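User: Quick sanity check before I run a bigger batch. Here is a single chain. Can you write out its predicted 3D structure?
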Amino acid sequence: MSTQGQNEARVIPLRPQGGAAKQPAAVKQPPAVKEPLWRDVVGGVLRRERLAQQRTLKDVSEAARISMPYLSELERGRKEASSEVLAAAARALGLGLGDLLSLAQDDLVRYSQIRRAAPAAPYNGLCLAA
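Assistant: Done. Predicted structure follows.
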């Protein structure tokens, strides 16, 4: 039996205590650049188009008949929208669904070009505008 009390936990150290020799520091690699998610690219296009038209989230969400918080989350790439919602948002901005997707595809092409030129360039949803 254990000499410890009933309510005491036994602690087993994961690392040796005391003067154990330190391991040499590993060479840090730069973080791998992740490709943007589709929702990030489409959201960036929606936001860029809305801001270019100097329109508010409220105005566009009312025209698209979607909630303002949902449109905000779409623009920030937090939500994955259905094709119906994307078409409604595009129409509210005076675009067709094809126009929206074409602009998103253009952003992806620009991202690929930037990534080949400078692999450490992160995607932030707004840096790809021509």
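The chain has a mean pLDDT of 82.

User: Great, the batch can go ahead then.
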